[in-house]
């Protein structure tokens, strides 16, 4: 197996890592600016209501994405020198995403018309659905596959900065909560529209009428990725959804305050995973991946231990909130952080890049089934908030265990490279 270690690869990796680091850094820093303000102005309950709407709408976002951020990224990466093939892939993927977007909107409308809890805040859910529209037309997978992530970074940073500024300008009192999803969607849709135009300009794309065979191929190739993304990303919103349905918006508010910080921290793993995935798909450089795994695990441990220990001070600084419940939720959720980061690196940059896509996906699907069973029992049997929150580290650890098992089963870490 020949490994490419040229300066071009190294330069591309560093460029992509820097671009994604800037993007994820903005994802971490900007919420730390707006979150405290929103919690103070809206109050914890209204903040919880807004995020309960997000948890519902994000299921549609996962459906519309359909795992293309992994399957299409890999396919584009392989064929990126063939502009005709790239155009065919792009056209087929976008056709599917637009069809799924329409289906999602119809489904959301049915929920709003038939279920009282959605009827009461219909405008909130429709406004939040704007996020799905924006994410549908943003070809993140194309920029990642072409390894031109700096452009994706520019657009994302612009939309997030715009949203942040507008939050402080528009949101002045609790009743302004409806403007939060509207402003968020506005920033995403504007940024996505520009990225869509930019993709055609940069990559010489041409819209090709998708063939039935090409559409079916994209659906089949991405289905396993969709299931794993539904398992992984869907799990992020499952607890929030159950909290909203069974414990009320106050608990949703507390949980979301912690969750936002948790996934900001998790971006440490995702930025590395997204950066090296196209590279690993091409080179399968195991030596490189092992170094990344050891370094990232060590860094995450050094960061998460003091974060948990000083969580009360951290929450006081960020949210100006002192609550035993909030502190305990924080400790429980962050206890699964290192497991999740290790699992990320073992998943797509390793298992999927070496052709074991099914194992990478199944590990999350099986973990999600255990997670759903645990969470459901915790809600309906124990009815204890803290036991329910433990679903997060349980899911992270279970996913890691399955991926470690598959790595040993395939003997990936013991492969010798030429």
* Estimated radius of gyration: 21 Å
Number of helices: 19
Proportion of helical residues: over 70%
Structural class: mainly alpha
Entry keywords:
418 residues; 19 helices; mainly alpha; 85% helix
Question: If you had to describe this structure to a student in words, what would you say it looks like?
Answer:
The mean pLDDT is 86. The protein has 418 residues and is mostly helical. Helix content is 85%, strand content 0%. The radius of gyration is 21 Å and the shape is globular.
Protein topology:
Layout: H1 7-42, H2 44-65, H3 68-79, H4 83-114, H5 116-119, H6 122-128, H7 130-137, H8 140-145, H9 149-170, H10 179-203, H11 212-246, H12 249-283, H13 286-309, H14 311-319, H15 324-334, H16 337-352, H17 357-382, H18 385-389, H19 391-410
Summarize this structure briefly.
The protein is mainly α and 418 residues long.
